[in-house]
């Protein structure tokens, strides 16, 4: 039976889960990962946690668990080499679980499928603009590594699972209890967040506050604390607007606001709030165009405009606004 997504893992299991999540966190290009397993419960936890993450971002994890060995070459291989346009635009990870099917026919077709992928590795890399995670039987690990040396050479990560399932809580969690986050915050990360809180409480409005907030925002996004990231980004936007009211619309104050708006958009995107993300990205784009008109085509102004255009375009694709 598949473990529920909140089923605890051992510390070693949580560490491997964090490593997997970090590989996928902001990946918007082809990446190949191998997971070798004999532990369906652990794989169930990994998969369902990813489902929850990508559900929040609208992109949805693309899961393939073939039920017929013939489908590996007849359907799955063509799907990977010729992915749907919308699927490509959203950069949704492709999770292919070939670890549960047993029997000689499955073993033969599985190895044939991998051999074809090995032969088609370059077309695969060109066609698939998203992470591909292959979940494979642990017992076949040595044979697979020998069979697909070229595919193995271009992998971005690999995981070999162990029995990482921890015992569930013996009683329901009370409001005072908490489950450890999959991405524990290091002491250094905590110091960055504490500094942002200190300056926020102090009512700081200098650029030093924006710099401190940006550092703590990066930490919050890295550790998956998206709600806190949203609070930090909002404080950046408010501070940047206050500075414009105080200093006027200088190129520096406008750029600070543009960057802050992008930060709010990034956190909204991570939370699946695409309309909010689009609103902030588009305002940032308008400001970037305004700065370009004021200061001319400097490397910084052109780079900022490029970043804003890219964010607006990605959001439009995610919302299915293909003309935009």
Structure characterization notes:
By secondary structure, the protein is an alpha/beta fold. 34% of the residues are buried. Helix 10 runs antiparallel to helix 11, helix 10 runs parallel beside helix 12 and helix 11 runs antiparallel to helix 12. Helix content is 61%, strand content 8%. A five-stranded parallel sheet has the order 2-3-4-1-5, covered by helices on one side. It is built from 14 helices and five strands.
Could you name the key traits of this structure?
single chain, 324 residues, alpha/beta, five-stranded parallel beta sheet, 5 strands, 61% helix, elongated, disordered N terminus
Order of helices and strands: HEHEHHEHHEHHEHHHHHH
- Oligomeric status: single chain
Q: What is the CA-CA span between the terminal residues?
A: 45 Å
- How many DSSP H or I helices? 14
The residue-averaged pLDDT reads 83
Rg is 23 Å
Ranges with pLDDT <50 over ≥5 residues?
1-5, 168-182
Shape: elongated
**Biggest sheet: strands, sense, closure?**
5 strands, parallel
- The share of residues in extended strands comes to 5-15%
Class based on secondary structure composition and strand pairing: alpha/beta
What is the spatial order of strands in the main beta sheet? Answer: 2-3-4-1-5
Approximate helicity band: 55-70%
> What is the total tally of β strands?
5
